[in-house]
Structures are given as structure tokens and as C-alpha cells.
Amino acid sequence: MILDLANRYVVKSKIKGVKVERELANKLWSLGFAVVRSGSSGGGVRKRFAPDIVAMKNGKILVLEVKYRSKEESISISVDRLLKLLDFSRRAGGYAYVAVKYSGSQWRFIDVKELVKDNDGHIDSRYVTLHPEVVKKGLSLRQLVERLLCDKLSIG
User: Fold this and answer.
1) Distance of alpha carbon 57 from its chain centroid, rounded?
2) Which residues are catalytic?
3) Number of domains in the chain
4) pLDDT at position 118, please?
5) Which H or E run contains 64?
6) pLDDT per 10-residue tile (average), the chain, 156 residues
7) Second label for 150, Cα 20 to 30 Å away, from 20, 31, 96, 156?
8) CATH, residue 45
9) Rg value, the chain, Cα
10) Nearest to 77, CA basis, from 119, 25, 131
11) DSSP conformation letters of 86-132
């Protein structure tokens, strides 16, 4: 019984995740980006890493890890996953960001390079925790697109 309830929670959570990934992909598409959403991102099905979303416009590439929470709460992401996101973006010549949406709030984008290193440039731990205050300081979608298309972002 308890296992069945836990399984239902996981399924509902994955469905919500897919829904918000599609929402962001559609928003980027409406802004003129070519967008690919990875169907099994994070699912452990692939032998190679696949980001949640890859969006391209005018030769610029965004590589995104998407996170959604119904409440403003901290989000933990494994450093290994973020390093794989950085590696993918490096191979593609793109920019790696974590896209975060809390229910009722706008999208915020946090540069992955800023998350995986401490002040000395070393990897800090096994997990990175994004506190709501950090998320609020992230770029809005409009700011991200403006910086991307005006070459104000640096490739990691």
C-alpha cells in the first residue's frame, strides 16, 4: 500500500515535470528558437547524457536542466549531473543553465558554471542546493535571451 502510494507520487511528479518542460520548450519556440526536448532526460535510459532541453537560435545554443516545484523550496541537483550538462554544452558550443519555475512564478535561469565551483574554482560537494533566494536572483527568460543574442554570455 505505501509503496503503491509512493509510486503514484513519483508518476505524478514526472508528469508535472514533463508538462513544465513542454511549457518552456513551447515558450522558447514562440521566441524563434529551434527546440528539442529529451524524452528520457534524467531517466537513466540513455548511455550518454541528454539535457532536458536544447534550444538554438542564430547559432547560439542553450542547454537546459529544468526544475519545477509547486512551493518555493530549496532544490538539490547532483554535481555529477551539472558537470555532464557543462560537458554537453561545451561539446555543442553552448551555454548551460538550470531553468527553475515555482508554481505561480516566472522562469528563472541560473548559470551552471556558477553552481559547481567554489571561489577557488574547485568542485564543492556532491550536491548543489538552490535556495529560493538564489533562484530569485537568476535571469528572467527575457534577460537570458537578450544576453544570449547580444553575445553577453560566456561559454564554459
Assistant:
1) 18
2) 41
3) 1
4) 61
5) strand 60-69
6) 51 68 96 88 64 96 96 93 94 96 96 76 74 95 92 60
7) 20
8) 3.40.1350.10
9) 16
10) 131
11) HHHHHHHT-EEEEEEEETTS--EEEEHHHHSB-TTSSB--SEEEE-H
